[in-house]
Amino acid sequence: MADEPLVLGIETSCDETGVGIVRGTTLLADAVASSVNDHARFGGVVPEIASRAHLEAMVPTIQRALDTAGVKASDLDGIAVTAGPGLAGALLVGVSAAKAYAWALDKPLYGVNHLASHICVDQLEHGRLPEPTMALLVSGGHSSLLLSGDITTDVRPLGATIDDAAGEAFDKVARVLGLGFPGGPVVDRMAREGDGKAIAFPRGLSSASDPAYDFSFSGLKTAVARWVEAKRRAGETVPVADVAASFQEAVTDVLTRKAVRACKDNGVDHLMIGGGVAANSRLREMAQQRCDKAGIVLRVPRPGLCTDNGAMVAALGSEMVWRNRTPSSFDLSADSSLPVTETHVPGEHGDFHAHAHEALK
Ligand code: KG4
Ligand code: ZN
């Protein structure tokens, strides 16, 4: 095996059909087909629509990735796929496609964890992750602080949201302000015109007696909705930019404070931020300021690698091959609630192909 494995990764846990191709820690292709516009009128992702869109986009997206990378499918050293967590039906499309390609091409298959992939993607931009690295993962489905060692085997949860995910809060506040879906990018844009100190919105779970590494955004979301409602009832104009900026300030303040604290408490001097909300400009700015002050090295992938994509799955798959991890077997299944500690799903029935041959006898 070459020491720079060539791996194709498939991601279908939510509304993005992502196919990435990676050689070692070098990104060769990152093809994404998103069904986000099909969900916009529902104000959130509709699982059945996402699954169907994955099915339609899968083969062309794989072909596009292979063309962009300029590699032949037969040259691949492995196929990686998000096995969970995520939407069950959506995951199933990716897992089935990955199995079909692995079977047809006679390649090892690696079912990997979506969250570990969000961390590992940073290797494509900043080189191999130091061990340990603290990871703040903030997306539409997750907000977690994770301590990672060897990313193929060792991801430990320190804390998570007890209610809404950070991205979910952005999406709900955008809806209250009539800004459309998904909310993050538009709130980010509006906030640039506003004053983050204009309104003192609450910082959840931030008193001394609260759990240090857990998050809560539901109270903040409600506070924003009440504030906006009161203005409207009084017949006053809602200062949308100030609301967006003040809400964003509350979210980023809590996220960065807890992340830096987790690093200090655990003696970790590298922090990575991943997931869709890591695309937020204020979060990136505040995290940089606070990390600089605390002597922590901050690693944040570029926005396109923070949101769901196939490159992150390929990045973790490539690491699995490089570190000689056991491939998944033929009976790999999608697990919508795959625990974060399960970085990958090694086969219990030995090698994928050996088991497939056995099953087909
Ligand atoms: O990681 P991701 O693409 O999908 C999930 O796994 O959820 O994250 C999507 C989330 C959405 O809630 C979206 O509003 C949020 O990331 N998001 C942002 C920004 N860009 C995307 N939130 C804040 N600021 C942004 N610039
Ligand atoms: Zn994600």
Structure description:
Belongs to the KAE1 / TsaD family. Residues 27-314 form the Gcp-like domain. This protein has 361 residues and is of the alpha/beta class. It folds into 2 domains: 6-121 and 309-359, 2-Layer Sandwich (Nucleotidyltransferase, domain 5), CATH 3.30.420; 130-303, ATPase, nucleotide binding domain (Nucleotidyltransferase, domain 5, 2-Layer Sandwich), CATH 3.30.420.40. It is 43% helix and 17% strand. It has 13 helices and 10 strands. The chain has helices spanning 36-39, 47-69, 88-105, 114-120, 123-126, 166-176, 183-191, 218-233, 240-265, 281-294, 303-306, 310-322, 352-359; strands at residues 6-11, 16-23, 26-34, 78-84, 109-113, 133-138, 143-148, 155-160, 270-274, 297-299. The strands form 2 sheets. It has a 5-stranded mixed β-sheet, sandwiched between helices. Strand 2 and strand 3 form a beta hairpin. The longest helix has 26 residues, at 240-265. The radius of gyration is 21 Å and the shape is globular. The two termini are 29 Å apart. The model has no long low-confidence stretch (mean pLDDT 94). The protein binds 5'-O-[(R)-(carboxyoxy)(hydroxy)phosphoryl]adenosine and zinc ion. Residues 14, 139-141, 167, 170-171, 182-185, 188, 275-277, 279-280, 307-308 line the site of 5'-O-[(R)-(carboxyoxy)(hydroxy)phosphoryl]adenosine.
Structure described in brief:
With 361 residues, the protein is an alpha/beta fold. Helices cover 43% and strands 17% of the residues.
